[in-house]
Specification:
The protein is an alpha/beta fold. The chain contains 13 helices and 19 strands. The protein has helices at about 75-85, 105-115, 140-145, 165-180, 190-200, 210-215, 215-235, 245-255, 265-270, 295-305, 320-325, 345-355, 360-375; strands at about 5-15, 15-25, 30-35, 45, 50-55, 55-60, 60-65, 90-95, 120-130, 150-155, 180-185, 235-240, 260-265, 310, 315, 390-400, 420-430, 435, 440. Strands 1, 2, 3, 4, 5, 16, 17, 18 and 19 form a nine-stranded mixed beta sheet that branches. An eight-stranded parallel beta sheet has the order 6-8-9-10-11-12-13-14.
């Protein structure tokens, strides 16, 4: 590994502003930032003239090597973190699922064993809590001890992950007691189940009906209920993948009342829309929640710009095309799309270059805010001396198209195939080591570290 790397004459972007200057790394950390830093005793110089220098992205919501108990993605942690590195994502936060009969600690241990020796970038874990019997709620403090202080719960997916309101309230109360953030997939299970059953009874099971099975009201009602229960328990809640403007507005209103709820959205809900279910490749966009009408994307962009949405995660999930087309029926098609490698060029192109958000806001929602919320700031998410040298050199002058042939995932497709993008990733550093150069992975499997995190003071 080069001991010192100097990134010269780039536009350095932080949430507080941008400046033309240099960034010098020493070992795994940022040593200095400024103008015309000395080039003596430097092992490598990266000319960033005309380029942006960004803190490495922190993706708070990914699913690498996912096993739902029904479906399994075909990637592993080597594949997933290679794609992350080539997308400028230098930290991923994934999930450890508590399968039946497991303790929370066993769920984490199983996930660590899967990751061991494979991760090319740093990672943390949230825990999907599926079994927390009455009277055993204090087991949640295990998450704090093991540096994974978030519990992920679901208000749908019966019977695998589903939590009814009583169990959800018990989790919230225990989380409040132990300083744990509760992440919630919010959809009303009864509404989703009834809509799905009506479509099946009518013989409407093709992929074009997927969005109709998961109506916007189901997401909005569940978000409203989650905020109410979180308030009752005095807990912090993080509602993942808001797909409708109404969901975010409900959570924003809750915050105005003093309820501690956080909104996340994803590039797919900002950029794609439900007309794709009528298109040539509906299998490319089977995911939960589904895509929404175009007007919802416009609302989400506005709410992202105004600060009501705090983070952008990808909900990355690398099922193969073969898995996606195995039945061509929405009830039996695995839900999830790949997104780790495409999020930065998409958000720059359709956000910054389109005038919807500023460069500073891009960095805030894709790097700094996730690092703050999940207990990694200022080690991650910013460009200051002493922070990890996680850096992205992005050239906004390049124009191209997204093509699966240039990606590092195993799925064999991208829902963004052929979409134009402005800009390209030239170099990515993870803790001071180049892991991507001009679209080619140059990192090392196993170099990524598990991040033990604490939410105290975050």
């Amino acid at each position: 590994m080069s001991d010192r790397i100097l990134i010269r004459n780039g536009l350095v972007v932080t949430p507080a502003g941008t400046f033309r200057g240099d960034v010098m790394t020493h070992g795994e950390e940022i040593l200095a930032i400024g103008e015309a830093l000395p080039m003596s005793q430097v092992d490598e110089v990266i000319d960033a003239d005309g380029c942006l220098v960004l803190p490495g992205l922190v993706d708070p919501h990914v699913h690498i090597q996912l096993d739902t108990g029904i479906y399994q993605t075909k990637d592993d942690w080597g594949v997933g973190t290679r794609a992350a590195a080539c997308g400028g994502v230098t930290t991923v936060l994934d999930f450890a699922t508590q399968f039946p009969g497991q303790t929370l600690e066993q769920a984490l241990e199983n996930r660590w064993n899967e990751v061991d020796g494979k991760a090319a970038v740093d990672y943390g874990l949230h825990v999907m809590v599926t079994d927390l019997p009455a009277g055993e709620e204090d087991e949640l403090r295990t998450l704090v001890r093991l540096g994974a202080p978030e519990a992920k719960v679901y208000t749908t997916y019966r019977p695998n992950y589903y939590m009814d309101d009583d169990r959800l309230l018990r989790v919230f109360k225990a989380a409040a007691k132990h300083g744990i953030l509760v992440m919630v997939h919010a959809e009303n299970d009864a509404m989703v189940s009834a809509a799905t059953e009506r479509l099946i009874a009518a013989g409407k099971t093709s992929l074009r009906y997927h969005a109709q099975a998961r109506p916007m009201l189901a997401e909005q009602e569940a978000a409203h209920r989650v905020a109410f229960l979180a308030a009752e328990a005095g807990a912090r809640a993080y509602v993942v993948h808001n797909s409708t403007g109404g969901t975010t507005e409900i959570l924003a209103e809750a915050r105005r009342k003093g309820i501690n709820v956080i909104s996340e959205t994803c590039p797919q809900y900002l950029i794609l829309d439900d007309s794709l279910y009528e298109g040539e490749h509906p299998e490319w966009v089977i995911l939960q929640p589904p895509l929404r009408p175009r007007r919802e994307g416009a609302k989400l962009w506005s709410l992202l710009a105004s600060g009501e949405i705090s983070t952008v995660g990808t909900d990355h999930c690398d099922y193969t095309l073969e898995q996606k087309v195995s039945t061509m029926k929405f009830p039996s098609t695995p839900g999830g799309i790949p997104g780790l490698e495409t999020s930065l060029p998409l958000m720059y192109t359709y956000g910054v270059a389109a005038g919807r958000i500023s460069l500073e806001r891009l960095v805030e929602v894709m790097s700094t805010n996730p690092a703050r919320i999940f207990g990694m700031f200022p080690r991650k998410g910013t460009i200051i001396p002493g922070s990890d040298a996680d850096l992205v050199v992005y050239d906004p002058r390049h124009k191209g198209q997204i093509s699966v042939g240039r990606l590092h995932t195993v799925g064999g497709y991208t829902p963004y195939e052929g979409m134009g993008v402005q800009g390209t990733i030239r170099v990515v550093l993870s803790r001071g080591k180049p892991v991507c150069r001009d679209g080619e992975f140059v990192g090392d499997a196993g170099r990524g570290r598990y991040l033990e995190r604490s939410l105290s003071g975050s």
